[in-house]
Amino acid sequence: MQTTQPQRLRPLRVPSSTRTLDNGLRVIVHDDRSVPLVAVHLMFHAGSRHERPGRTGLAHLLEHLMFEGTAEVPKGGFDDLLERVGASNNGSTWWDRTNYYETVPSNAVEVALWLERDRALGFHEAVDGAMLELQRGVVINERREAYENRPYGTAEERLQAMVFPEGHPYRWPTIGYEADLRRITLDDVHDFHTRAYAPGNAVLVLAGDLAADDAFRLAERYFGDLPGRAPLDSPAAPPVARPGEEATVPDRVSFPRLYRAWAVPAYGTPEWAALDVLAYLLADGESSRLNEALVRRHEMAQEVDCWLYPTELAGMLGIQATARTGVPAADLHEVVSEILHEVATRGPDPEEVEGAIRRARRDQVLSIGGVESRAEALAYAATVLGSAEALHDSLDAYLDVTPERVAESASRLLPSDGGATLVFIPEEGGP
Amino acid sequence: VTQRTLPRPRPGEPPVVQLPDTDRRVLESGLRLAAAPTGATGQALFRILLPCGAVCDPPARAGLAALTANLLQEGTEGLDATALNQRLDRLGSSVRVRGAHDFLSIGVTALTETLADAVAVLAEMVMRPAFDADALRRVKGEMVDELRAREDEPADRADDRIAHEIFGEHSYGRQPEGTEAGLARLGRDDVLAFHEAHFRPEGAIAVAAGEVDPDSLAGVLEDCFAGWRGAPPPVPEARAAGEPAAAGNVLRMVVPGAAQAEIRVGGRGMTRDDPDWAAGALANYLLGGSTITGRLGANLREAKGWTYGARSGFHPYRLGGSWTVETAVGAEVGDAAVAEIHGELLRLVDEPVPADELARARDALVLSLPHAFATPGRVLGRLATVEAYGLPHDHWLRFVERVRRVGGDAVREIAARHFDPAQLVTVVAGPGEGS
């Protein structure tokens, strides 16, 4: 079989232009006429890390309330008007940011902009106690459905609390703790909205079938006169270096599962890219190190995964492995430690690193494969890395990753006696 | 000074939708190729579909198609599993092999520059798999563990139960991965025989999207699949009735300690080539096609705050189909939620749909068509549906034209046929007492 020689990867580019309105709102435009759609993406530099302890879940609950309607567009009207023009919309909240987005056929971009303007201006006077109670119920059920009622569903919030120290704003889950969700008041909602949703704390991306001049003109028309406010303060975060922590959790599961996690350098640092390559070579693909050892060679695990969060104050790298029938979690732990030690001391092979970089590229290409995801990528870079162009730096960073840097990062940043070791085991009398 | 309200914009004419240009050809082997290049994104998607999913599992051999599929990544005559997977991984490709209900699919997500090399590996996997005995033992064990893990997930338990209630012993009534008992019986001879019979180019389909050149892809396929010949045996044609035996009943499953009640309501659906498919899509959209504006979501989520979401959908297969409602609600309101769902179903059966609600649903389906083709992945998925189910090439344009013409009477006919609680079975998996 013929195999072509490895080729240098083409640089990936998402061209855009940025202007800042007088009120501080940054507007980013990406012109792509291949599909008659425009992605409207509004991202606020405000997430669960801007909450305070005791009010966790507030940023996400606010996101739900933003869909509850205004005097001009009553409840249900937001979706109603968008559906009538064939548009889809949603919102999401994470540690560092909250986003709202609409994907509209290119004849109807103004409908989305008009609706975003309406709720930016009309939210305060519209939101009331009944709306808060209703969405509090929806969110508590979201918490149950997505986390509490799922096997291993509380793993992530446990890892956050183990990896990040007391007082660190990545310590709690974006969905919030149920007791905190029950405590949130309308005053909390107003206060967070006022501080977090200032124009200077947001970026608006318009991507797709729309000329740049028209896009900037529309942004000015619908958002130019929104009052500017002082941007949100980011609470200071304590340093993350901590001693290792271990926990064992009985759960309604049939198979033990091991998690390891570490707080690591933030998204946008050279170490982050090296760690992402490490994550790919550890667990992406059937020949990746953990797959090869745990699933295939030792037949100890059903599946393995390794992930790295692109977050602003620090990253979090996690490894998970779910045991096969009869395999204790301790055996998984031993093999994971061996493999990390091997990578850190002997270093990965150059071909292995090259493959991992290509697989990372495969997913990057996917992440900018349509106007919706490109709009989000631009908004995220502008929000967390400081500018839309920084997206290119984060993509290019992979091309400089070498086996030596992967080994050095593994050795220095993922110490075997540090980070979180979390084990789920079947509870007594469980399934 | 901020002018509080700007006039509501009036959208202009919706854009004219053009389906991606698709190059269709039949290769020397009989394999049909449909490729839809979608721009210089650097991404190339390719998938082969063989019409031998779990419906082709022999009696008492449930899981054979899926097991055969899962073994394709375990080595070929020329490359052991390690070498095979290293080659794929170093190309930066990701391969996904799956035995589903109707089709067995072998797909690759690749970078444009490595697609040809990845397809060459795929061809070896399809034509000359090793079916190593040790790998077979391991993969069977993994499949059993996966089936057991479904028992831990309340949502999976409810899904599995409703499928079984609707389809009974038909293969659509279980996971394509089969059953523990079926898997236990499978040996290497079964897999070899299944592969020999079913892995044939006639009737097989290849689809591609993304940054692909149809001519060069066709050339690569001719080279890599040279010598592949033959036709598989006819696939079973027995229709799956999808009439639940327990229609009209609420069946309870106890999940000790569950924080929510997982609710499923389901019954007979339809196939994609059903003349009423468009009317069905519209009727379903009104009820649960959108979790915010659909009647189920508007009631259970937006009015009551009992759930994060409630949706419904038709699930079309080649030999039949189902229709289900799914939601998860706080355990304390499980029974009340079932009553509300049944009430919404009856309302659509018994009462005319207001013209404005109907118009909105119609516009939502018709005008969102560009969105359905907005990424290479979506283009590939829609192309695969058209090719695999033998739909007209302009199926999606016809679909929206039909939706445009669906009136209120047609919606109520659909509702009477598919949404009447008396013809449906309801499953509640929650912490309460069982019956």
Structure description:
The complex is a heterodimer of chains A (431) and B (435). Chain A has 15 helices and 11 strands. Chain A has helices at 58-65, 77-84, 109-126, 129-148, 155-163, 178-183, 186-196, 212-223, 270-283, 289-297, 329-346, 350-367, 371-385, 390-396, 403-413, and strands spanning 17-20, 26-31, 37-44, 88-93, 98-105, 202-208, 245-251, 257-264, 301-308, 315-323, 420-426. In chain A, strands 1-2-6-3-5-4 form a 6-stranded mixed β-sheet, with helices on both faces. In chain A, strands 7-11-8-10-9 form a 5-stranded mixed β-sheet, sandwiched between helices. In chain A, helix 3 packs parallel to helix 8 (212-223). Chain A is globular and about 60 Å long. Mean pLDDT of chain A is 94; it is low at 1-6. Chain B has 435 residues and is of the alpha+beta class. Chain B has helices at residues 64-71, 81-90, 115-127, 133-150, 154-167, 180-185, 188-198, 214-224, 277-289, 295-303, 334-350, 355-367, 376-388, 395-405, 408-418; strands at residues 23-26, 32-37, 43-50, 94-99, 104-111, 205-210, 250-254, 260-268, 307-316, 321-330, 425-430. In chain B, a hairpin with a 4-residue loop joins strand 9 (307-316) and strand 10 (321-330). Chain B is globular. The interface between A and B is large, with 94 and 97 residues.
Return the average pLDDT of chain A rounded to an integer.
94
Give the radius of gyration of chain A.
23 Å
Q: Helical amount among residues of chain A, as a percent range? A: 40-55%
Instruction: Give the beta-strand count of chain A.
Output: 11
- Which percent band covers the strand fraction of chain B? 15-25%
Task: Count up the helices of chain A.
Answer: 15
Task: Kindly report how far apart the N and C termini of chain A lie.
Answer: 49 Å
What structural category characterises the helix and strand content of chain B? alpha+beta
Largest interface: A-B, 94 and 97 residues
Residue stretches of chain B low in confidence (pLDDT < 50, at least 5 long) are none
Envelope shape of chain A: globular
Number of strands of chain B: 11
